């Protein structure tokens, strides 16, 4: 077996603490959004459910089925599917489905009929970002058809969802417009007899800033992983540490060029160490020339253009040994760069850094046991 070289440590305890904080903040109306392999964090569904999440949200039916296969019994909502998706399987596996159009509703009904069970659906209104969800003009006919098929027994309308465009800035007047579109959509639905459906509008930013207006359930993704798009709190804990190990190192003289195009040229004699992690593993190439890593307790720059499989760190007077561990990013407690810094270096958002980490890097889940448990465990 190969020794592990680069490792992605997933701090399950941090995710649990963030989850518990959102459970408190939302009055126990927390849907944990675990799309894109839980924002790159891997298998953490059972942890978030133990920590207070009541349900799980994902985009595709495939993601939802994978959670069911992993033993998740809680409600799961899938909100992004084409009419060709396997709705029969979704209904059989008790997966809730978001419905943004009459075409998709018809496809869900066909799946429910084949499954011989009613589909649990959440009608999805576009409140203002012209992305997914039903255009406001088409909402009343969608509600009318939903009521009709509900009466026939093939669906149950259990939710009404919307998603906000500008909630990271609570002062943006768009928030009030979108809350109004959503409130009107709920009123239209209830006039069509869809009254018990639970409304949900807010994601992380709208929940932290209050811009979501306190409708029903809160769909929280980024915040569970310590990412706050609204920059309104520093209470959330980052949950990933990426480390790698030195393959080789060498001393080079002034004038030595490094990497493709020789973008970096050493101005003095220095030491270079090679790390076997590159843009093929999700390190953004755009961060070339700006990014740093933590080496022997201090920040050192990555130099030259990032390669697919490797990067080079300038360690100054230190000659590293093959196998020495280097921290690429982490929560920041020991001075290592954070995901937020990497995002700034790559001119992107933290979400993109964490979701692009490649499958070559193993995810290693760590939980720090509370001290009152360790005694019992030792006995
Ligand atoms: C991703 C997503 C969320 C979660 O958003 P965060 O900002 O990560 O909390 C909620 N709802 C929908 C529809 C989404 O696509």
From TrEMBL:
Enzyme class name: isomerase
Active site positions: 35, 260
Signal peptide from the UniProt entry: none
Binding site for substrate: 131, 308
UniProt pathway annotation: Amino-acid biosynthesis; D-alanine biosynthesis; D-alanine from L-alanine: step 1/1
Keyword tags: Isomerase, Pyridoxal phosphate
PANTHER family for this protein: ALANINE RACEMASE, ALANINE RACEMASE, CATABOLIC-RELATED
Name used for this protein in its record: Alanine racemase
Gene name of the record: alr_2
